[in-house]
Amino acid sequence: MLLKSINPSSGETIREYPEHQWEEIDQIIRNVKTAFKSWKTTTLTYRIERIKEVARLLEIKKEGLAFTISIEMGKPINESRAEIDKCIWVCHYYCDNIETFLQKRIITTEAQESYISFQPLGVVLAVMPWNFPFWQVFRFAVPAILAGNTAILKHASNVPGCAIAIEDLFNEADFPYDVFRTVLASNRKVERMIANKRVSATTLTGSTKAGQSVAETAGRYLKKCVLELGGSDPYLIFDDADLNHAVDACVKGRLINTGQSCIGAKRFIVTPGIYNDFENLFVEKMKAATIGDPFDEKNQLGPMARGNIREDILSQVNKSVSKGATLLCGGQLIDSPGYYFPATVLSNIQPEQPAYSQELFGPVASLIRATDEQDAIRIANDTTFGLGSAIFTSDIEKAKQIGEQELEAGCCFVNDFVRSDPRLPFGGIKESGYGRELSVFGLYEFINIKTIYVR
Ligand code: NDP
């Protein structure tokens, strides 16, 4: 089978890549396992040097890599550049902190000596999505490889160009050849790869359905597994919020990456005193979002990454409207080549509508009127997802209490939109998955936390 790289702003095929055959995949896994045996014995100083070299190459090649992202999945070019910058950041963050994170930890017991030693697990298989085709890979690979693991990337089928560009970067940075390898394969090959006895662990970022499938296989073969899945992040806007600031942050949080982000702002739950003003200003700013060629820097929105993703979002909007939602702007396909979908706002959202209960992976916002703050918290938690959340209010103490104790999510941002940061743990609960990425917690996911006890 061929993996097709399609330019989503025209629908034209850029290039076709043959999938790796089973013999090739088995050989790659064997090689990456062999590489692990020597990579884990290298010094931390050497590993840090190699990752710093990757960061240097990312900086030098930024323009070309950003182009590869935008041409393959349609991200506005400035956001693609910012994605490469974030990859550079995660390289430096872990290079600066890895020694401290991996330092053996003495624990006083009745023994002569007892301590915790942090050892790599082995070959980690990463099944990654197209929406942040560099960042999602780097945030898993940098800590895993610095810790002494080796890695195999099975990227999304629509971004083979990005997958190959990432493997090339590691090779150009003088990594031993099989420390990081890309396998060109569709999702049908993942189960057998996880089952391979040389693979120690797996991590998937993607839909809940894909996560369920990977978790099932990982469970069957007892492989360590991290899942970063979808979300339907609630943004709570209370009467005492700074309206202009809240609207700006909410629009930004909803439109980033043309709405195709797991931690995108999706449900805006607004208390009655501010609801009308919020709705008016929010719709005005969503209508003003410019859409078009992702290489034209003035555009905030590019095309959706694939035709079927646009069809899905259109169907969710239409079904919601047929069940009583009000379309305040957008919602109509744009008459031009490519998979464009405009910034869209729905109100009068009810539980039976997809806009209430499903993830909207596109530039579509659901506005929900709550009766009061308690009702807003109830609605926020009335979802199968639990990834991010945000609260807009001038009462910071109240927001912290609600964020910590009441919202069912992996994070809560107060007076800001949710975003990932190498210094902070990232991940979800409920059907948004389990495990954490980034920070020291992400590093420890692919580590054998080993107890040494000397009598
Ligand atoms: P998928 O979850 O299908 O794809 C993500 C990755 O998982 C890809 O590498 C894909 O491979 C792989 N995959 C898919 N199904 C399986 C499976 N059964 N077993 C193992 N691996 C699998 O996302 P889509 O691209 O189809 O997007 C669909 C929806 O997923 C979006 O609308 C959004 O809701 C959600 N999503 C969430 C993301 C996030 O950041 N949490 C990122 C992307 C999507 P292949 O490409 O070969 O199918």
From TrEMBL:
Coiled coil: none
InterPro entries listed in its UniProt record: Ald_DH/histidinol_DH, Ald_DH_C, Ald_DH_CS_CYS, Ald_DH_N, Aldehyde_DH_dom, ALDH_GabD1-like, GABD/Sad-like
Ranges of residues in domain Aldehyde dehydrogenase: 4-452
Spans through the membrane: none
Keywords attached to this entry: NADP, Oxidoreductase
CDD domains: ALDH_SSADH1_GabD1 (cd07100)
GO MF term set: aldehyde dehydrogenase [NAD(P)+] activity; succinate-semialdehyde dehydrogenase (NAD+) activity
Gene3D superfamilies (UniProt xref): Aldehyde Dehydrogenase, Chain A, domain 1, Aldehyde Dehydrogenase, Chain A, domain 2
NADP is among the record's keywords: yes
Pfam families: Aldedh
Family that this chain belongs to: Belongs to the aldehyde dehydrogenase family.
Protein name per its UniProtKB record: NAD-dependent succinate-semialdehyde dehydrogenase
Organism, scientific name: Plebeiibacterium marinum
Lineage of origin: Bacteria, Pseudomonadati, Bacteroidota, Bacteroidia, Marinilabiliales
